[in-house]
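Practice set, problem 2.
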Amino acid sequence: MGSAPASEDSPAGGVYLPSGVQTAVKVLIVGHFAVGKTTFVGALSEIRPLRTEEVMTQAGALVDDLAGTKDKTTTTVALDFGRLTLNDSLVLYLFGTPGQQRFTELWQDMTRGALGALVLADTRRLGQSFDVMGVLEELGLPYAVALNDFDDASAEHDLDEVREALDLLPETPLVRCDARDRISSTHALIALVEYLLTRNAGSADDTAGTAVSAGDSELEHA
C-alpha cells in the first residue's frame, strides 16, 4: 500500500509535478456510503491524499443508512483527492466522492471535466449501487465497476451473477479489488482506463484518450 516513488527531479519530495507534465486526466472514484472510496484513493495516491472526513454523529444516523457499517466512525463530507503520475507527461487526478445520497448534488458537480468513473461496490449491499450508477448514466459519464472485497463478506459471488444483478451492459468492466491494496487497486483502475481507451479509439481528436493510451503501460507498473 506504499506510495509511488517520487521523482528525483521533483521538488519537495514529489509534492510538485515534474515540469514536463502536459496532460492531466480527472477520474472519479464513486460508490455508496462506506464502500471504501477514501481507502482506495489513499492506497493509490503518490502524495498525501486530501481528505474531508468528519466524525459521524447520532444525528447523521437519522438520514444515513448505517447497515453493515458498525465499525465506521468517520465519513467524507466533500471529497477525497489524490494524484498518480503515470509518466513524465501524464498525471491522473483521483477524486473520491461522498457516498451519502444527501451529497449527490455535490459530487454531480465534480463530474465536470472527468474522463470516467470507477464505481466501488459491496456485494453485501449491491442495491445501494443503483443510484450511483444511475447518476453516471444520466450524465453520460462512462464507468467501470470494482467489487471491493470485505473480510466479513459471507461468500465470494460469481462475477456473472453480480453483473446480472447490477444489470450492467456487456461492455461495462466488472472486476474485483481490495481497496486497501495498492496493486489490487491499480488493476481496477487499469480496467477503467482500458475501457475508456476502447470508447475513445474512434476519436482521433480526443487528446485525453491519446494521452491515457501512452500512459496505460506505465499504470501497470505504478
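Problem 2, part (b): a different protein.
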Amino acid sequence: MTRTPATPVRPLIAIPARFSATTSALRYAAEVNARALIEAVWRAGGEPASIHPASGDVASRLARFDGILLPGGGDLAPHHYGAQGVHASVYDVDDLQDAFDLEVARQALDVGMPVLAVCRGLQVVNVALGGTLEQDMGGPEREHRHVVHPVAIQRGTLLEQATGVEKTEASCYHHQRVDRPGAGLTVSARAADGTVEGLEHPGLHGWFTAVQWHPEDTAHEDPAQQGLFDALVRAARDRH
C-alpha cells in the first residue's frame, strides 16, 4: 500500500491586527491586516493568523505561535519615546494598539521568537528597545510616501541573507524615521538620503530583522522582497 506523504504543517505566524474605522465588506469597524502581507506569508509556507490587540498576558498568547510579523500601521504616540510635543502630522494613534505592539515586540525578542518587523513594526521595535523617532521627515519634499527608491543593504546582515541582494528597490510609505536606534540595534540598510531603512540586533539569540519599507507591496513579483517572508517562515519552522 502506497502512503501519500504528509503535508508539512505550516508554521503559525502571528500578525497583530490593525483597527479600521470602516470596512465596506463588513459594514462596521473591523480589525484588519493587509491582504498582500497575508499572501506573502502564505506563499512562504506559513499560516498567517491575525491576533486581537488586547491588554493582558501577552506572553502566554504568543506561546502558541512559531513566529511574529509586526506590520505597518499608524503612528506611535510620541510620549512612548520621550517626545515633549506632538507634531501636527502624527496620525491614527491608538493607545491600546501601541501598548499591545510594544509588549509583543518585547516578549517575542526576549524569548528568541523569529520576528519580521515592517514599517511601523520597525519603529515599534526601535521604541520598545529605548530608541527614538523623528516625528516628521520634513513634509512632502522629504517624506517617503508612495515612493519606490533604492536602498543599500549592509553585507553580512540577516537582511542581505534574506533578500540575496546588496541593493533593492523599496516600496515606502512613511513620514517618520528612526532618530536614535534602540539598545543593541544596528543599522542594516539606508536610503540615499540617510534614512534608516533596516535594523537588526546581533546580540539576540533568535532571528530578527526589520525594514522601514513595505516588502509585501512587490513580493509577488520581486524575489528579494518575498525572501524576507521566506526567511521568517524558515526560521519559524527551524525553531522546533
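Answer key, part (b): The radius of gyration is 17 Å. The first strand starts at residue 12 and ends at 16.
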